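Q: Joint fold for the lines below.
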Amino acid sequence: MKLQEYTSSKHNFEECMKCTVCTAYCPVLQVNPLYPGPKQAGPDGERLRLKDPFFFNYALKYCLNCKRCEVACPSGVKVADLIMAARIKYDTSKPKWRDRLLASTDFMGHLARPVAPIANAVTSLGITKTMMDAMFKIDRRRTFPKYSPRSFEAWIGRHEKEQAAFSEQVAYFHGCYVNYNYPRLGKDLVKVLNALGVGVQALDKEKCCGIAFITNGLKAEAMKHATHNVQVLGKAVDKGLMVLTTSSSCTLTMRDEYPSLLGVDNSHMRDFVMMATRYIYEKLEKGATLRFKPDYHKKVAYHTPCHMEKLGWGIFSEKLLRMIPGVEFTMLDSACCGIAGTYGFKRENYEASQAIGAPLFEQIKAVNPDVVACDCETCKWQIEMSTGYSVMNPISILAEAILCEKDK
Amino acid sequence: MKFNTVIIGGGLASLVAGITLEKAGKSTAIISTGQNALHFFSGSFESMEEAPQRVTDLFAEAGIQLHYNPGVRLMPMGTFRKSTLSLEDISIFPEPAIGHKALIVSFAGYHDFFCQFLAEGLQKHGVQCSIKLLNLPELEALEQSPSEMRSVQIARTMDRIWENVVREIRILLRDEDTVILPQVFGLKDTSVLSRIRQGVPAQVVFTGTLPPSVPGIRTQMLLKRRYELLGGIYLMGDEATGAHVHEGKIHSIVTHNLGNHFLEAENFILATGAYFSKGLRSNPFEICEPVFGLDVEQAAERSDWYNPEFMREQPYMKYGVATDATLHALKGGEPLRNLYAIGSILGETRPELGTGGGLAIRSALAVADQILKPTEE
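A: Joint structure:
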């Protein structure tokens, strides 16, 4: 009997009521008519694909994986998972070199870090951008993230003893961005946690979470990273440590995408991987205290990254920011900024990417904050490039606002 | 995390309760599993025979103008239905008649608005109808993907090019006294509705499309924005999966996304809707309420749940969560002291509160008032 195979799937397409609510919330559908939309690409398409892979539509590559369809679905259908899983399963086209390059954030970081000043100067040159555009179809209008000459891994390594002195300990999954581009965020987290009496340990050689491999169809690489990380994080969890993160996308990938898209079992560590904002909030709720600078003042507008929306943990960032005396808080309408990791860097997506983000950029300009707060690094690049406003992780704002031992 | 009130469900009833409580200075959170019945909203609040000032004020403060006008409105099949309190999209007529000649205007390639049915229905009321489908170059991009040419997609374009539609209608209009358009206007800016009405030299009637409902999504967006502006926390895409109950009181609830971070509150409001939104579930043996396992009023025999004649009134549609006089939900026959049920999860167990939008608004206000009332305890 093939009936079962034809009519049910891991990502519950059969529960779709065809109400079309998801299509109203898909940011891509609003700007790119080539994209069939989440209902068609997800549950409707799945029914056909199960019968014959011939029905796989290559236009599914326009999906951002922002998961807003899933968040909107009244019937709990895993619409975005259906689309991503179909791409992994049926897309037989060989990933382009460009996509490999963009997805290999770990590898690129390794290469660029030792020569960071040169790499940064070169990637900001007009001629380099033109060449990358011509050779790889990486859009020349993009601003590239800067590399840091010193990695966070090296810094935390130097502070190992000092951190081990704290009675309470956590592990930190810093991710590629903190390690190669912006170690400052990692240091900010250490500052806040230390102020709470918690020491920070590095993991035993973490790898990139692999989200860019998943979205760029590099399944083997994604599997390799997932299996490695599950093992490394598992080790920390076995030692009784929580694993904290500062990137909403890394967190969603390791908690939810590993099992649902890659089939990698993470059940033993999933509940112990947590955004640092949630950990800190819970600590404060249980009675821990932070002391804030009396003269701190900042107008902060918070942007909920799509993957944070999916995690449902934006509430912790919001609560923490509102807790800071002197912070004037505005919640921005929850909307996609358009970058979606590597998506917006590709020449064919540039216009769509900017059009998707346009309402958010307008709202930011209207609010005119001192700083935009956001827990995602790629949203940060996009918002900074497109609005000129600077973007800080809530952890960095917290670090800036607290008084520590040294300040006394 | 602790709140004064945690509301489970994110639709009309929840938002009305949430806004009322936030305005009174109570901290609240709304947990919404996906989008809600406002996405299927006709634009007219069912069973609202009166228009209390506090209701129209509450909506006006969110940027939604309601008008009160007992009469009938035009339905998508060319029939008429009783209507009173409505959004400004809806035209109300004193009786089922809209004029002598009507021009029905829709868009080429748009399949969610049935001009022919509308015309046939109206002809029975003595209205002569002609149908025109506009071919707008701005909609060509949408037509590339016909399966996704939906009301909301068109409405996004119309927010920009509604003036072109007015121009086309002025060219097409001959001696018709009425122009009927699908409800695909004013998603972001409701002033578009009155500007179209002013720009067309005939009476303009906006009529419902297949879902999603453009006036409904606008209403949802504005109410949610108002709620968040007041300080309310709207947890979109999360789901209440269980509760900690102690001596007849809910202590906290568990949600899918927050896992072992429980949401505590003084009061809990259950507004998860009926079957579509899974506020009520059925299996071969019973109809149940999944979060708290509350009592659901239902016939004991499954064969009595439904009428085999499909188009007849179906008894199961009337079933709902059992409550006491003050809308406290019952479990095992006993009221849970700080849990209230509001909106369509009540089914028709409280006929005095009405149905649909009327039930949602009345029950939400009744419960919010109770929570705000100083307690004797």
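Q: Anything notable?
A: The mean pLDDT of chain A is 91. Chain A has 22 helices and ten strands.
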